[in-house]
Amino acid sequence: MLKMSTLLLRTLRDDPADAEVASHKLLVRAGYVRRVAAGIYAWLPLGYITLRNIERIVREEMDAAGFQEVHFPALLPKDPYEKTNRWEEYGSDLFRLQDRKGNDYLLGPTHEEMFTLMVKGEYSSYKDLPLSIYQIQTKYRDETRPRSGIIRGREFVMKDSYSFDLDDDGLALSYEKHRNAYIKTFDRLHMKYNIVSAVSGAMGGSRSEEFLAPCGTGEDTYVLCEKCGYAANVEAMVTKVAPFSGDTPAAMEVFDSPNTPTIDSLVELLNATFGGGFKASDTLKNVLLMADDEAISVLVPGDREVDLKRLQANLHGVEELRLFDDGDFAKRPGLVKGYVGPQDAAKLGLRLFADPRVQIGSHWVTGANAKDKHVRFVTHGRDFEVERFIEAAEVRAGDLCPECATPVVIDRAIEIGHIFQLGRKYAEALDLTVLDKDGKPRVVTMGSYGIGVSRAVAAVAEQTHDEIGLCWPREIAPADIHIVATGKDDQPFDVALQLATDLENSGMRIMLDDRRDASPGVKFKDSELIGIPFIVVVGKALADGKIELRVRKSGEKAEIALDGAVAHILKTVTAE
RNA sequence: CGGGGCGUAGCGUAGUGGCUAGCGCGCCUGCUUUGGGAGCAGGAGACCGGGAGUUCGAAUCUCCCCGCCCCGACCA
């Protein structure tokens, strides 16, 4: 039983000055967490109970799925991370340190290497697979900018699992088992979430999905089709267009276009010269970029911008991507800023990519690769060819769902889980093989799966709070019932304690506000701020043999007879 | 890393060259009060983020450093 007279808890009336998002403000005000340094938080009793409740739910669901829990240190030697090249690759996000002898160590940002080595050390036969193991561990990442309280910290608690299989079919099955376990977990956490296709990136894996909890303060943007439920990370959104069906136009025709280096000015000129009806989407924008050391051109309709993040996610293997600057133009005199067209790309040594909207057979108004000249009827397939189509154009609300062609919406969310078919990258780097039926060594294929446990505390707070405070689902809350005693005599306090004891003996987790000096108003405000789902008030109504039962979320209040109260409360609480 | 902002008691803040740094919350003592963040009286708590400088005089001006927040870049 938590007794507020002795609980290490001090609620604050004012929002902390350094907090911006609701979960951060409320978790600090309600006495759940305190900041220790940027992105590093201490958990007070209420917060730590809450964190452990979420941890427990996650653990129970992982165990139920047949995954085995292990535990690694956070403090790790450099060597395994050198072998996979992540000592370097992770860059300055990695917390590095040295021991007294000058040997290098790191604080684990994620543990693929260690899990791979553990399996390598213990197993060597295909008969031992499949295997899924997990841990709940504190991770360290020296984020350049921690933000939003405990949503993005430099130290955080994460559940990470790894699956090991002999072949792709096995991996697909392990992935599916994790996916199902995650669905059960997040359902039990009472979270609203979408499972969103993500780009698997340069890691080589084939399938990757994120569990995103929709929330205005979230930092991830994703696309959602409200009709069919299709959801995708903006990077992974697929553009679907009907095949081009118009006639092939006449040959390319160059025309004068002085002082029209922008799409807007070009549209204006077109309407003045060739009659009305031209739109930005009839023109072709040639976006020039440097991909590592290579010049590329990406073709998008004139009304779209190139989304660099999307482009990079779909340009596999490119480390650095940036728009052309004046120096790049200066080095390539054939490219005239504002007047670039794809028809001479081969001659100019440009690699060409096109947005799927720039279909084969479609024709465009674009630059003539000469100052003050544009050209029309430039036809894809006749006048230029691209290396391949690429998803690079910005995604907008109203773009069509690739599954059912309904306009999609764009929403923000917090990433609470990520499941990922890793493939053989780590197994290869660390030489994790098992002998197959034929006695031949085979490299194991892996999946990796994460849930942000401490982040989930904040995410649930974000999704469930209201104007007056936190509002937890029962299984997560620091207690099931918050009993408040008010009055100056001993009686309500004695009754409240007895009630608390009886309810506790019936399996309820109780927080009892037995403070003798705090006024009723203070106690009520605190109970609302702290957000335990049921509040029982023992006070004024006691004169009539009654107590009050409140539901935090709905604000419902009901007076019930003290006689038989335990049974009544149990019924209400467990009916939720 | 670029841009913006902020560091004054546990928390929220006022003070922008001049006396002993002010207020609210919280905390301690006493009395009163007890159904919506009570009242009165008394009290403790601050090397004003750190250092150097300018000045008769610095929380206040200048420079350097440190820390923190926000936007962007970055982010399994």
Descriptive terms for the model:
576 residues, BirA Bifunctional Protein, domain 2, YbaK protein, Rossmann fold, nine-stranded mixed β-sheet, 15 helices, RNA-binding
Overview of the structural elements:
Helix 2 runs antiparallel to helix 6 and helix 2 (45-64) crosses helix 12. The chain has 15 helices and 30 strands. It folds into 3 domains: 15-237 and 410-462, 2-Layer Sandwich (BirA Bifunctional Protein, domain 2), CATH 3.30.930; 253-389, YbaK/aminoacyl-tRNA synthetase-associated domain (YbaK protein, Alpha-Beta Complex); 481-574, Rossmann fold (3-Layer(aba) Sandwich), CATH 3.40.50.800. Helix content is 26%, strand content 28%. The longest helix is centred in the N-terminal third of the chain and has 21 residues, at 168-188. Strand 19 and strand 20 form a beta hairpin. The strands form 7 sheets. Strands 4, 8, 9, 10, 11, 12, 13, 22 and 25 form a 9-stranded mixed sheet that branches. The mean pLDDT is 92. By secondary structure, the protein is of the alpha+beta class. It binds one RNA strand of 76 nucleotides through helix 14.
Question: In summary, what is this structure?
Answer:
The chain is of the alpha+beta class and 576 residues long. The chain is globular and about 95 Å long.
